[in-house]
């Protein structure tokens, strides 16, 4: 592969390998620092004295040096490895916490949520980041970025998923450097006056000021929410229906200020500044102004992590365009990844947005030039839409494996929404920036508000129409990590084959397809053999699933089982058939008895059963244990917490294993 001939790409891949090793294995940061420094000193010594960069020894030392650099950068970047991290403080009970709000998250139905940095505990300096939840209260005002507060609240561990194949919010937060949650009730904290202001805080205030100004204009509710998302990175006001439509239409990426927006903005800026290139040093001035304007937009959009990442990436792309050498584009793109992962945050490698942004940009740079050469229409308008279609296909090919792995769906009509919206996005962004500018000056005329509102409304209507074409939305696609790797391999070898046909490349391409198909068939075969019985956790409900091959029986006391509980399991486990059964008092699983005791508290006399307690039965558990001598007691989410605590204490006293699904997660009858 020719791309591997570029040194920055090779070094970036080695750094990524090191970060992956650091992610999956634990290392001591001090030892890693000494090893990394030793390797780079050794590398420098060999380079100075041997001056032979093609020797095997030099290549081996380079490889080890950059792998260990990746391991060290990841390990050192983990907040919990910092000696001043709040987790190192043993006296957290009833301690006085000083916190600073860093980011406002989308509120849920019951509470407002924030990321906050730990400033001190009992006046001792500490570091780290917490997830803060404050229950909604009519007298409580929301906090702003840079607000500082004092509280005696305690931290709690973030719960892992309680049911199989659910989204692991705990792991997601750990990749953001957040390990604990703090619930702060209204009235139990004090806001500090005259808190220290940061650049991100100033950006957040500027964004809030713009949003308040826009709220006083005659925009529609849905249109205004989309405008805020497109231009200001504020998605919290988007309705669930609108967001779902964009998701089904394969255009959800438009609602997050990301690489697409910054890339289009860069092209728009370069087009507007193109007359400067006729002046002396015009290209240099264009580069400087482009970078300044990109970061100015990032500032207006709130300087969130995703916006900073995208702007950093396209700062490097702007430099690549300035050099005007296509072969350097991949080098500079690799250098931007290297810079971001090494100096900004190696944890970004494990974030879906980062992976999809770079996959899309890389695919466009690599695949688009090949696709557009297939056909060269003479008509300029036809050529423009053909090239736009090629860009859309290239980007979708790049993100397809990642999208299938994380979201298990593929919008078949993605090219329709992209063919219309992506060309219009430049106009929408340009007009939007003009609208914001005129709003701040109080010069925004009503005709411009009406025109812009109609454009956004038309875009929403198109997306809603595409989303209604259910037959073209392929969802619930089973796609595991091995399939992700193999599909990337098929894509890479396929593009290489398309570049140049040869017997060897055809063989490799066919072998990669056979490997992908072979693994898929093997997984289907294993799914047919697998059987398991699980008690799931669900508040106020009892749900038992009995899986036999690709058939799933859902045993429940209520018919309205949440879709997400079953759909996630169905997709991951390759289930084809589902049926519902009502809950009985007893079952026999694998020659073992399961006795279910509900609110009636009536039970038959069985010998040494497993007991499932549901719907808070009023029973004397000591007497039941003496009578039935159960080998294990299970309690699901349909029981009162006070009952759970009492049963748990009784089981500990009687030395009977006790499993509460709200604490230990789903129960597996192995």
Automatic annotation (TrEMBL):
Record-annotated DUF4131 domain positions: 29-187
Any one cellular-component term (Gene Ontology): plasma membrane
Domain (ComEC/Rec2-related protein) ranges: 230-495
Residue spans crossing the bilayer: 7-25, 31-49, 56-74, 251-273, 285-301, 330-350, 356-372, 384-407, 413-441, 448-467, 473-494, 506-522
Keywords linked to the UniProt accession: Cell membrane, Membrane, Transmembrane, Transmembrane helix
Keyword Cell wall biogenesis/degradation among record annotations: no
Topology in membrane: Multi-pass membrane protein
Cellular compartment(s): Cell membrane
Protein name: ComEC/Rec2-related protein domain-containing protein
Originating organism: marine sediment metagenome
């Amino acid at each position: 592969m020719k791309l591997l001939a570029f040194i920055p790409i090779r070094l970036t891949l080695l750094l990524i390998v090191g970060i992956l090793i650091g992610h999956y294995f634990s290392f001591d940061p001090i030892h890693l620092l000494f090893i990394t420094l030793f390797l780079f000193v050794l590398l420098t010594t060999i380079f100075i004295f041997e001056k032979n960069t093609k020797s095997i020894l030099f290549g081996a030392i380079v490889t080890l040096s950059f792998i260990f650099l990746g391991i060290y950068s990841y390990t050192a970047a983990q907040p919990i490895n910092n000696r001043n991290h709040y987790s190192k403080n043993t006296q957290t009970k009833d301690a006085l916490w000083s916190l600073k709000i860093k980011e406002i998250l989308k509120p849920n139905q019951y509470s407002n949520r924030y990321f906050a940095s730990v400033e001190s505990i009992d006046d001792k300096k500490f570091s780290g980041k917490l997830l803060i939840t404050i229950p909604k209260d009519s007298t409580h005002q929301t906090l702003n970025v840079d607000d500082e507060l004092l509280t005696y609240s305690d931290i709690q561990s973030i719960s892992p998923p309680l049911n199989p194949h659910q989204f692991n919010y705990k792991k997601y937060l750990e990749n953001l450097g957040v390990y604990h949650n703090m619930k702060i009730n209204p009235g139990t904290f004090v806001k500090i006056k005259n808190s220290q202001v940061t650049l991100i805080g100033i950006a957040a205030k500027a964004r809030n000021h713009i949003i308040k100004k826009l709220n006083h204009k005659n925009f529609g509710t849905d249109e205004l929410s989309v405008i805020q998302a497109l231009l200001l990175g504020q998605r919290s006001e988007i309705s669930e229906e609108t967001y779902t439509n964009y998701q089904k239409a394969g255009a959800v990426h438009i609602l997050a200020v990301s690489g697409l927006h910054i890339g289009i903005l860069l092209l728009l800026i370069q087009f507007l500044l193109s007359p400067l290139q006729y002046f002396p040093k015009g290209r240099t001035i264009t580069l400087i102004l482009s970078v300044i304007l990109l970061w100015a937009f990032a500032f207006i959009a709130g300087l969130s992590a995703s916006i900073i990442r995208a702007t950093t990436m396209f700062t490097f792309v702007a430099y690549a365009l300035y050099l005007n050498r296509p072969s350097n584009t991949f080098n500079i793109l690799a250098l931007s990844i290297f810079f971001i992962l090494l100096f900004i945050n190696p944890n970004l490698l494990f974030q879906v947005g980062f992976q999809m942004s770079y996959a899309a940009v890389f695919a466009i740079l690599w695949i688009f030039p090949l696709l557009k050469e297939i056909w060269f229409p003479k008509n300029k308008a036809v050529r423009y839409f053909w090239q736009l279609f090629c860009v859309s296909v290239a980007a979708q090919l790049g993100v397809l494996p990642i999208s299938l792995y994380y979201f298990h769906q593929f919008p078949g009509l993605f090219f329709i929404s992209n063919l219309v919206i992506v060309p219009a996005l430049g106009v929408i962004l340009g007009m939007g920036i003009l609208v914001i500018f005129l709003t701040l000056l109080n010069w925004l005329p009503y005709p411009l508000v009406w025109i812009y509102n109609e454009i956004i409304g038309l875009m929403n209507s198109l997306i809603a129409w595409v989303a209604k074409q259910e037959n073209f939305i392929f969802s619930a696609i089973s796609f595991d990590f091995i399939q992700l790797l193999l599909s990337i391999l098929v894509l890479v070898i396929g593009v290489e084959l398309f570049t140049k046909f040869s017997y060897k490349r055809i063989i490799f391409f066919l072998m990669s397809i056979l490997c992908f198909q072979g693994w898929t068939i093997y997984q289907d075969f294993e799914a047919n053999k697998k059987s398991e019985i699980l008690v799931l956790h669900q508040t106020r409900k009892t749900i038992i699933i009995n899986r036999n091959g690709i058939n799933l029986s859902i045993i429940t006391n209520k018919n309205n089982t949440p879709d997400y509980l079953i759909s996630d399991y169905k997709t991951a486990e390759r289930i084809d058939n589902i049926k519902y059964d009502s809950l009985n008092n007893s079952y026999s699983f694998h020659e073992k008895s399961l006795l279910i005791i509900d609110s009636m508290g009536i039970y038959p006399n069985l010998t040494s059963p497993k007991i499932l307690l549901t719907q808070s039965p009023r029973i004397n558990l000591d007497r039941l244990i003496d009578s039935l001598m159960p080998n294990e007691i299970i309690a699901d989410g349909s029981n009162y917490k006070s009952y759970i605590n009492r049963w748990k204490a009784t089981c500990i006293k009687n030395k009977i294993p006790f499993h509460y699904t709200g604490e230990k997660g789903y129960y597996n009858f192995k």
